[in-house]
Design brief:
The chain is α/β, with parallel strands linked by helices. It contains 6 helices and 7 strands; from the N terminus they run αβαββαββααβαβ.
């Protein structure tokens, strides 16, 4: 009989599934709402992920992410996070703090992600470890650019994601070694 962690390694066709999913969320049309996607894009441009790590632009997909999130050992979500902290503040939520992310929604796509995680929990396919890394948005106006506050601090989010992956044992490599 397979354990839950063993089943995360193989999908229904017997192909190897990556145990770590880094999920960039947000709507890039709404200024800082797209910061998770923008951070993920920067990571994809600048770094090579090991085969065990999948980098995915989840946009505002919601239930469309069900298969991609199913039975992951680790889920790292990059997103805008509502908080009383100043715009651009880095926020990390893990363990019991993750439900706070859903109760203090900054944007509607977080409802969709909560639905996906609830569905995966009901089917016993939820990720083993979830971390939300985000930043407090400054503005959600209709524009493709990040606000000055968030853009100036986006590197903090990128570095936090890299540190999180390294701590899990999955460091990323520079595409352009120094």
């Amino acid at each position: 009989m397979q354990t839950a962690s063993e089943t995360t390694r193989d999908d229904i066709n017997g192909d190897r599934v990556r145990p770590v999913l880094v999920l960039g969320l947000g709507n890039i049309l709404l200024e800082d709402e797209g910061l998770g996607v923008r951070a993920l894009e920067a990571i994809q441009r600048r770094y090579l992920a090991p085969p065990e790590v999948e980098l995915l632009d989840g946009g505002t997909t919601g239930m469309g992410l069900l298969d991609q999130m199913s039975q992951r050992e680790h889920l790292l979500v990059l997103d805008a996070v509502r908080s009383d902290e100043p715009p651009g503040t880095l926020i990390r939520l893990a363990g019991e703090d993750v439900p706070v992310y859903f109760s203090q929604r900054a944007t509607p796509h977080q409802i969709g992600l909560a639905d996906v995680l609830a569905t995966l929990t009901l089917s016993d396919e939820q990720p083993g470890h979830i971390v939300i890394l985000g930043m407090v948005p400054s503005s959600l106006e209709l524009t493709l650019d990040l606000s000055a506050d968030v853009n100036a601090r986006l590197e903090n989010l990128i570095q936090a994601a890299l540190e999180e992956l390294t701590a899990l044992g999955y460091p990323l490599q520079d595409r352009q070694p120094h």
